[in-house]
Amino acid sequence: MPSQRSFSEVDEGPQDADLERFGGETRPCPSCGADVYDEVEWCHKCGHVFSQADHKVPRWVLVTAVTLVAGFVVYLIAG
Predict the structure, then answer these.
(1) What are phi and psi of 23, to 5 degrees?
(2) Which of 17, 24, 43, 76 is geometrically suited to a Cys-Cys bond with 48, CB 3.0 to 4.6 A?
C-alpha cells in the first residue's frame, strides 16, 4: 500500500499556474497565520475554509464610495 504524505511534505511553493491564477497578493490565515493567496477558498497549511466575511474591502473602495455619496448629496442640496 502506498504511503500517504502530509501537507508539509508536499508543499513545494507556488507553481507558475497558481501565480497566474491568484496573482501575488497574499494575506495571513486567521487560523494559523500562514501566508495564503487572497483568492483561495481554504488554507493549504491548516485547512481553514475562508468565507466572504474573511475578505476585507480595500480602504480606497470605501473612501471613494463615501466621497461620491457626499458629492451627490452636496449637488442635490446646492442644486
Answers:
(1) 75, -165
(2) 43
Cα(29)–Cα(15) distance, rounded to whole angstroms? 19
Give residue 2's pLDDT band: very low, low, confident or very high (50, 70, 90).
low
Model pLDDT for residues 17-76, shown as the tens digit of each residue: 776 766 667 888 888 988 888 778 888 889 888 876 656 777 888 899 999 999 999 999
Q: SS3 for 32-78, per residue? A: CCCEEECCCCECCCCCCECCHHHCCCCHHHHHHHHHHHHHHHHHHHH
Domain that holds residue 11: 7-78
44 belongs to a structural domain: yes
